[in-house]
Every structure is written in C-alpha cells, then in structure tokens.
Amino acid sequence: MPQVSLTVNGRPVKVEVEGRTLLVQVLREKLGLTGTHVGCDTSQCGACVVHVDGKSAKACTLLAAQLEGASVTTIEGVAGADGKMHPMQEAFRDNHGLQCGFCTPGMVMSAIDLAKTNPDASEHEIREWLEGNICRCTGYHNIVKSIQAGSAAMRAAK
C-alpha cells in the first residue's frame, strides 16, 4: 500500500492508504482524531471541515493520497499548546453557539478560516460562508453571534 506523509496538528505523520481512502478516514480511523465528524457522506453537512494548508476543506471530499506533504489542522489542533481553547472555541461556548455539538467542530474550523479571510464579516457574509455547514439544532442565530465574537477576539489577540 502507498504511504502518504502529512503534518497533522503540527506533527509529521506517515500513513499507509489505499488510493480511495478519504482524509476523514485517515484522521478518524488511523490517527484517532475523532473531533472531525462524518455527518452525511455527501459533502453537504460540513461536520468534517478541517484546514488543509491553512484553508478550510471538507475532509470527506479529499483523497488522502492527494495530500502528500500537506499540513492538516483538525479541531484537536486549534487549542494552544497549554490546552487553552482557541478564541473561536471560547466564543462558541460563551455565546451558546452549539447544542448537540455534532456540527460544532466543522463550524469552528470554517469560522476560523472566515475570521482570517474576512475579519470583520457582516452577519450576511457569515451566513453565506456557512452555507456548506448544516446545524439541525440551533437555528444559526447563536452561531453567527459566536463567529462575530470569535472574530473580534482573534483580532484582539494579534
């Protein structure tokens, strides 16, 4: 079986993969990083969003073999080395941006990318950005508030 070398959450890894193995399978099944969720198997829910080379991507759409040399960050990798939550994670907690929590890792990963891309996004821009992330519990109001607060905290932390 071919091997793929990646950097995952700052740590170099080599994993054997079949050509059809998806990144989400590598993360969950081979590396034990179960914070990246599988929700739909059709690339529509966004529960599997991670960062690949700094940009958000759905891990269920990427073949692991395509990612030779890539840097992947999962929800487990956004907290500080000291264990302190990322400002966006804190904002989701503080603004009640989650209920069941299943979509939350993907939402947070998408939100971090948005905050880096458009640090002062309007409510409309946030809602447009989240079109690929589905939440069945919250109604999105508190998610939008969380992203606004998280973006502000990320700007303040610079």
Give the strand order of the largest sheet, numbering strands 1, 2, ... along the chain.
2-1-5-3-4
State the CATH class of the largest domain: Alpha Beta
Q: How much of the residues is beta strand, in percent?
A: 5-15%
Which word captures the global form?
globular
Report the order of strands and helices. EEHEEEHHHH
Estimate the helix proportion, in percent.
25-40%
Overall SS class: alpha+beta
What is the distance, rounded to the nearest whole angstrom, between the alpha carbons of the first and last residues?
43 Å
Low-confidence stretches: none
CATH architecture of the largest domain: Roll
Mean pLDDT: 95
Number of domains: 2
Largest sheet: 5 strands, mixed
Name the CATH superfamily classification of the largest domain: Beta-grasp domain
| CATH fold-level topology of the largest domain | Ubiquitin-like (UB roll)
What is the radius of gyration? 15 Å
Tell how many strands the DSSP assignment holds.
5
Helix segment count?
Answer: 5
